[in-house]
Amino acid sequence: MFAKPRPKKNLLPPPSKKRKATSTIEEISFNDDARTEFLTGFHKRKQQRIKRAQEEAAKRARHEKLETRKQIREDRRREVAEHVETVNRILRESGAVSTQTDEEEKSTEDTDEWGGFPDKPDLDLIDHEEEYIDEDRYTTVTVESVSVAREGLSRPDQSEHEVEAEAEARQKREEAERREAEAKDGKKPSWQKKKKKKFRYESKIERQLTDRKQKAKSRPRRE
Fold it and tell me: What is the 3-state secondary structure (H, E, C) of 107-129?
């Protein structure tokens, strides 16, 4: 009754019957060491993960602690500044503090500049003696002003030549004392070493005699 439809022609070219070139595997090697490490390293890897997590947590806690301290310092600084500003405002309103203009402040700053310490300050020379008497004791105390320098102590009224001469004399005196001490150490007699007694074994007769003496001494104690 109905005619069969004609089959549709395939517009695509037919597939080629040639085989695709595939890469061939020449050899498969099995690593026993890697397998053993993987199978026996579960605990080790777990401990490494725990340690890494602890280190990261410690770093995070330290960073948070530093941030908290920084925030606290900033809050305190702001509170102090606000408090100072409030106190100054109250004092200005009450009239206890008189405000200065910028020109007056600059003039006071210029006049109050500090030039530092002088090279040689004007010091009153102290050079006197005092005597102290207490029953049978008599003491004389001399008070002098001295200057401290790299070469040592010196009096302010001394010249550089006198200071150098005193330093040389002090050095010679110390050298003489050192030589005298070395000479005394060299004159000490060397103690002779004591000779060690030679150890000698007792003979049989001597041992019997010593045993009898010990027994004779121990008898009256027992009685």
Answer: HHHHHCCCCCCCCCCCCCCCEEE
- Could you report the per-residue pLDDT of 153-170, keeping only the tens digit for each? 666 666 667 767 777 888
* Average confidence (pLDDT) over 91-105: 63
Q: Which DSSP state fits 103?
A: H
Measured CA to CA in angstroms, residue 209 lies from 200, 216, 221 at distances of 16, 11, 20
Show the beta-strand stretches assigned E in the chain.
127-134, 137-144, 147-149, 152-154
Q: Which tokens sit at 77?
A: 């600084």
Taking only Cα atoms into account, the Rg of the chain, rounded to an integer number of angstroms, comes to 53
CA–CA dist 218, 221 (Å, integer): 5
DSSP state of 22: -
Q: Give whole-number Cα distances, 205 to 85, 200, 201, 210, 219, in Å.
A: 111, 14, 12, 9, 21
pTM over 0.70: no
CA atoms of 147 and 162, how far apart (whole Å): 14
List the one residue out of 144, 143, 145, 142 whose CA is nearest residue 121. 145
Residue 148 near residue 133, CB atoms below 8 Å: no
CA 122 vs CA 112, 119, 143, 156, 159: distances in Å: 21, 10, 18, 10, 17
